[in-house]
Design brief:
Elements: H1 3-10, H2 13-16, H3 21-35, H4 38-63, H5 67-107, H6 118-148, H7 157-164, E1 166-167, H8 177-203, H9 208-236, H10 241-244, E2 254-255
């Protein structure tokens, strides 16, 4: 069979979809014209920053010769893409809020719509969507990494490998996994804090001794949990791309004709 036909059959729909900035602006404009909701356009714009990592996730799962490593990296890069979307939405929302306050103060006019525009609503939705889905995806990636003995690297390595058509990914010096992990810790503590507050409100009615026991046990549990999480991070976060996509004896670095032919590893 012709090699080009092989390539087209192997390519998945995620490998064919490419969101360029003109296409993104066109999609945002259409959403605004059809729905009259500028917040949807803002949400689409934030999603652009994580789309490349979502594509990398599907590419890694498809081409990695190690099936379990491919699945681990899939969840890791899904989490990374969602995290990028949420971080960009949060930073943009803060910047727009500060600029809006400064402009309102300079013009000495009251804030419109209580200071919260539809665009900021779209940014808030993108942040909540990104953080909300990145949280479970991060824990899935950590669980898969521990279970399969994979060290996670989040960076430009798979993007370069996919565009230049080689294996294994080997570019980059900064691992984004600790930043995603730190965000996961903050969200975990926030959830535990909310649950702890609800429990404390119920325990207080039982007396001072029960309250002290509850507080002490909670602090010990949280400290133990943080130690376990940090220990897990040190075990599953790679210090270089080579620690993630390490070469086995049966593998060798090879050039591939198509970004989707990685499954033909020697």
């Amino acid at each position: 069979m012709d090699g080009r036909t092989n390539d087209s059959e192997r390519r998945g729909w995620m490998g064919r979809v490419h969101l360029s900035w003109p296409m993104l602006f066109a999609a945002g404009w259409l959403l605004y014209e059809i729905t009259a909701q500028p917040g949807l356009g803002a949400l689409v714009a934030c999603a652009k920053f994580g789309w490349v990592d979502v594509r990398a996730a599907f590419w890694l799962r498809r081409v990695d010769p190690d099936r379990w490593r491919g699945r681990t990296c899939f969840w890791a890069y899904i989490s990374y893409g969602l995290w990028k979307t949420a971080i960009m939405a949060t930073l943009t929302m803060i910047a727009m809020g500060l600029i809006g306050v400064l402009l309102d103060q300079a013009a000495r006019r009251p804030p419109v719509n209580n200071g919260f525009s539809p665009v900021l609503e779209g940014m808030l939705a993108a942040a909540m969507f990104g953080f909300g889905l990145s949280f479970p995806a991060t824990y899935l990636a950590l669980w898969s990494a521990r279970r399969n003995g994979v060290r996670i690297w989040l960076g430009r390595a798979p993007h370069v490998a996919r565009h230049e058509r080689f294996w294994p990914p080997s570019h980059g010096r900064i691992n984004g996994a600790p930043f995603v992990g730190l965000t996961c810790i903050v969200m975990t503590l926030w959830f535990f804090l909310v649950a702890w507050g609800v429990g404390l409100a119920a325990i207080v009615r039982m007396g001072a001794i029960a309250t002290m026991v509850y507080i002490t046990a909670s602090l010990c549990f949280i400290l133990h949990l943080l130690i376990r999480i940090f220990r897990t991070f040190s075990q599953v976060f790679a210090t270089s791309p080579q620690e993630c996509w390490n070469l086995e004896v049966s593998e060798s670095v090879y050039q591939i004709r198509s970004a989707d032919e990685g499954t033909n590893a020697a």
